[in-house]
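Priority: medium. Attachment 1 of 2:
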């Protein structure tokens, strides 16, 4: 089987601004996530960041990506709209998308969800317990009934997302809140997984369970096939059954449809 081509996109802003984040992730969160994925022999992993030309997400890079992981927080508004549209097009075609933690407010996630994706939150270093909702799902293979993260940022309901196709995890926090922390959707031909853990001031991407979930998610999200969106004008003579054109038309032969 061909290797799974993975691109880990990271905003790479907190790592530049905060010494605490640099201590936890000396090469950046995107590099830490990529290092965990690179433990799998059939993964080809690259990274991309906001600061690169085209944010590291050129047409060619995305064409060579089976699964894109997205981490952002402080600079959602700085992501260029044309790059967001480029990513959406690739998801429609079949590229998998894994959105992490504060990526819930990213342009690409809100665009694909069609909702505000708002939530409640608290940064108090409290414990999070992630319960597995569907033990048979590929994303949770190798994970017990639940796992815990000792210090996290709380995300709480209501989470303004469309009803998930599948609920994979639900989190309980030490302060009492709960949150739909692992959800999947299909958009076009592409699979999307939102996974909550990952605040920059805690070493969450070093956690073995979190790494296992991300590995599983990349295998689950890889394309089943590629579908290229088009809206062609089918000439009368190419109809599956013989027909004769009747009536008036506002289109010229072969003309593209209005958009």
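Attachment 2 of 2:
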């Amino acid at each position: 089987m061909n290797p799974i081509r993975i691109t880990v996109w990271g905003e790479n802003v907190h790592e530049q601004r905060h010494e605490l984040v640099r201590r936890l992730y000396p090469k950046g969160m995107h590099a830490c996530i990529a290092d965990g994925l690179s433990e799998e022999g059939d993964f080809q992993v690259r990274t991309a960041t906001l600061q690169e030309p085209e944010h590291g997400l050129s047409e060619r890079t995305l064409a060579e990506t089976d699964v894109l992981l997205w981490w952002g927080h402080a600079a959602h508004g700085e992501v260029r709209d044309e790059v967001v549209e480029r990513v959406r097009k690739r998801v429609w075609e079949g590229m998998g998308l894994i959105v992490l933690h504060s990526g819930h407010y990213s342009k690409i996630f809100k665009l694909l969800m069609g909702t505000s994706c708002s939530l409640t939150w608290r940064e108090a270093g409290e414990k999070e317990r992630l319960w597995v909702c569907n033990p048979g799902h590929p994303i949770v293979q190798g994970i017990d009934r639940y796992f815990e993260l000792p210090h996290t940022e709380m995300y709480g309901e209501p989470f303004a997302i469309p009803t998930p196709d599948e609920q994979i995890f639900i989190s309980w926090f030490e302060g009492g809140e709960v949150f739909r922390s692992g959800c999947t959707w299909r958009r076009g031909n592409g699979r999307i997984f939102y996974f909550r853990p990952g605040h920059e001031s805690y070493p969450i991407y070093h956690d073995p369970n979190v790494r296992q979930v991300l590995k599983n998610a990349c295998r689950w999200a890889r394309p089943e096939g590629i579908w290229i969106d088009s809206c062609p004008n089918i000439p009368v003579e190419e109809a599956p059954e013989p027909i004769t054109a009747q009536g008036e038309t506002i289109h010229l032969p072969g003309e593209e449809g209005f958009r």
